[in-house]
Specification:
By secondary structure, this protein is an alpha+beta fold. Helices cover about 25% and strands about 30% of the residues.
Length: about 130
């Protein structure tokens, strides 16, 4: 539902799924919560910019599922770790819980999260290691 109206708001949306993507059921809720946080932040930034790009990629690499979400952003961040600090927000008071909550979700589920900002593109990569069945 978060993506229904993006094109009406001047956002170029690209969603790509490569191959068959499957994750264990026990990760479903955590994955939905984590992706919700990432998408909320991306859409909020794109709204601030009055448009831009949102790219979402689901793929499988060897023994892991990889989800890459990148969005246009206004600039660079000096310290990515600062963004994940509980209560830190560049957008005002009573904010700054999303990325710290995301980091908790990542840690609790043994996912890997890579975050980068380069060339006005904010990118987050979630890696989910497949377990032996």
């Amino acid at each position: 539902t978060k993506l229904l109206n993006v094109q009406e708001n001047g956002i170029e949306l690209n969603v790509t799924v490569i191959g068959e993507i499957e994750v264990e059921n026990r990760y479903s809720l955590a994955l939905v919560r984590g992706l919700g946080i990432i998408l909320d932040n991306a859409l909020e930034e794109l709204e601030t910019l009055n448009g831009g790009k949102l790219n979402i990629l689901f793929t499988k690499e060897e023994e892991e599922v990889v989800i890459i979400i990148s969005n246009s952003c206004s600039g660079t961040v000096e310290n990515i770790r600062t963004l994940k600090t509980k209560g830190f927000s560049s957008k005002g008071m009573n904010r700054g819980l999303g990325l710290s909550n995301l980091q908790e979700i990542i840690n609790e589920n043994d996912f890997v999260l890579e975050t980068s900002v380069k060339n006005n593109l904010f990118t987050q990569i979630i890696r989910i290691q497949e377990r032996m069945k």
